[in-house]
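Q: Could you fold this chain for me?
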Amino acid sequence: MANTIPAARPRVPHFSSGPCAKRPGWTLKALSDAALGRSHRAKIGKDKLKLAIDLTREVLQVPADYRIGIVPASDTGAVEMAMWSLLGARGVDMVAWESFGEGWVTDVAKQLKLADVRTFTAPYGELPNLRQVDTKNRDVVFTWNGTTSGVRVADASWIADDREGLTICDATSAAFAQRLDWPKLDVVTFSWQKVLGGEAAHGMIVLSPRAVERLLTYKPSWPLPKIFRMTSGGKLSEGIFAGETINTPSMLAVEDYLDALAWAKKVGGLDGLVKRADGNARVIAKFVRENDWIDFLAVKPKTRSNTSVCLKFTDPAVTALPADAQAAFAKQVVSIIEKAGAGYDLGHYRDAPPGLRIWCGATVQSRDLKALMPWIAYAFNEAKAGLGKKAA
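A: Sure. Below is the predicted structure, expressed as structure tokens.
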């Protein structure tokens, strides 16, 4: 049977998991009011940075007594700032099931070299047994949504209400598309370039009153780089949480984030954003149900991400291949789609199992995902036909 080239292509073929697609209708004109050539410490700069914090609180529904700060080095900088500033006061449980979570484990065990560290891990596609994590007595570091595995925590019910330690949550591919249980979280980090499609370089850190108390009552035994310091003279550096950034931010990127937040409000705030991401994920779920040669990498439906959706090829002709050949097959599928201009940046993360990774965050349009699905089928059939030719 002939493999027919699909008749239509996505209008916006951008499915990268970061930087992610810009919001629908975005143009450079959206940045025309940026405070370029002005100091970020001038009133106009401070006002825009403070507005970014205030709109973040409004859209994400962050409690009024939680502090929100704009920090250097994207989500990575925010997570490192939290770990280097807060960990070490008590034992810590590290939870990881994909590459970024594993990176935080490495930093705590080999860089901070904490003495009392327990690690709970799971292979790609699965979650560790979260009930084994001691959220009552120990600090906990985990990702809400595994960007490179497409596996997320279903909820925060596993976190003790009466915890004594802190929960530090990397939520960079969850924020603005999944509901975060704020009372269960003490530190939440994310970046601008994920669900809202903002520009990279800047991170956000959200601190609960309990996290602030730890900052004021605990001093790590190691020196802290300037970009990690949230206290001065034994007091909280309140300016960080009012738009006075530690280092110089890009006011162009700030303007873009403000534009994304304004768009988020127009589409219904958090409810609208979650609805859009859920709808996008359903497009892929339908495609998977209709094709027996592809499946989700996430084993359990309730843990499947609605943003970084990861897929694996299950056709016996592919799974019988050696690991490097399976990776080459996945890259060929991606290459066929990209050369046709039907979808970009669909490849699996370098440390993840071979397959596809499709961003379904709120800035992606369902119509574009619907147009992409026939191209995945076409590319798969083309690549599989090539396997037969090689065997011959």
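A (continued): Residues 107 and 113 are 8 Å apart (CA to CA).
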